Amino acid sequence: MKYVHEKRWETQSAVRLEWVRVRVPEPRGILFVPPLIGGNHVQQVRHFRRLVRRGYDLVSFNYAGHGGSTDKFSLEGTLRDTRLILDRTVRISRREGLPIFGIGACYPAIPLLFWAGSPEGRFQKIVLINAVLGLSPRAVVRSFLDYYGDLRRTHRRAPRVMDALRRYVDFIFPGVAKSRRGFGALERRRTRMFKTLYDAFALNPLKTIRLPRTPVLCLYSTDDPILNIFDGIVGSDYRAEVRRVCPLARFRVLNSDHFLSHPQTRTEVFEDLIQFL
To answer: pTM for the whole thing?
Structure first.
């Protein structure tokens, strides 16, 4: 199967976003996949290439502050950016008669679900993968203090707080380049730091969102350290929170980490996704 990668730009006011559409002959639909914070559209194309091979077009993009997208990054800005590219995707779907399927993994589930209920952003189906549904700075602080306490108990000499913080971030986000200059593809100089911190405390985008008619497949790991930060012990409470937003959600528990690192797990996940879509 031949793919066509169309790299484009979408402009609104002073914001210019970099986005991509991967096209296949006679597609079954369009996968709309918002990027990870610190990631980019190339990452999402690579992660979901198996679905493209099964006959789906894919649209992803770069948030502001990432790659070629302009403006600076903030959490509230991810909502604006997602809406901008989703509006473009909806226009494509109407013109070409293709359904849209949303995929939200980790944080991108928040902007995806936030716009899923709007008339312009209706999805035929939605897939959530280790989805974070809300941010809680208190939960992050509590999680770090627990982690630091474990380090003190297991080491003869207590590590310095900054060393422990670096270990903690590596534990939560393994394999992601981290430094004082940035996080993954997101550079610190291209981030509205105080605005992002304010958003983390003040924003609760999914507080009033409910999708009573949208089929949703939610895949999650009970051993996911990120979900355990924001949702406590992942289990019935997590399912209840997902069903508050998505009453028709179906669940599958994964035996994997947050990033689906095990090849067998990835194969099983994609077979589930293909059947669901």
So the answer is: 0.82
Edge-to-edge strand list for the sheet holding 186-187: 178-179, 182-183, 186-187
By three-state DSSP, how is residue 252 classified?
strand
> How confident is the model over 111-170, as pLDDT tens digits?
999 999 776 568 999 999 989 887 766 665 665 566 566 666 776 666 776 666 566 555
Q: How far is CA 246 from CA 113, 161, 207, in A?
A: 9, 39, 12
Closest CA to 112 of 133, 143, 135, 141: 133
Q: Are 222 and 96 in contact (CB under 8 A)?
A: no
Sequence-separated (6 or more) residues with CB below 8 Å from residue 107: 36, 37, 78, 132
Query: Which H/E stretch holds residue 215?
Result: none
Distance in angstroms (rounded) separating the CA atoms of residues 234 and 119: 32
CB burial of residue 277 (10 Å; 0-12, 13-18, 19+): buried
CA 48 centroid distance within chain: 13
- Name the residue among 50, 45, 48 with its Cα closest to residue 62: 45
Instruction: Give the phi and the psi of residue 178 in degrees, each rounded to 5.
Output: -135, 135
